[in-house]
Amino acid sequence: MKYTSVVVDDKKHCLEIMRRMEDEFRKGDERFFIKVMEEEPSLVLRVHAVTILADLGSEAAIPTLSNVLLHDPDPLVRHEAAFTMGQIGLTSGVKALETAVMKDKDPIVRHESAAALGSIGSQTAKGTLEAALNDGDELVRNSAAASLFNLEFLETFAVGGTARDRAPRP
Question: Which domain holds residue 67?
């Protein structure tokens, strides 16, 4: 899978795909948005597909979102992938998010990945978040601290259920 940082490669094509996204969202067709993320070069289409998956996404979206988070050349797309994984709230995304917190070159991606780990609420992420308290970027450190606080809250007071079942989430 190869991604580019092209904002809009073909305006007519992008408008048509955006129109189709509206239809596929109403149908709840998660697979369509996964395909857009995997195949479309346009930044605008990939960002839109990733953000829609925050509402539609399930376990099926996590491998593609993880790949986007770890390999897309554009930090905005990687950031949105991290956000979406946090909103979906499944622990299957934790490993990729931890990798992004520790290794992504862009602080907005590291920040959003740390925040997503707090939203998911998996205690296994505690070590990564503690390490992120030493990140060179204040936003990343703050997101890690907030997520650690959320993990402590969940460990102390949560009554169970998945991250997706809990509300509100950070």
Answer: 11-157
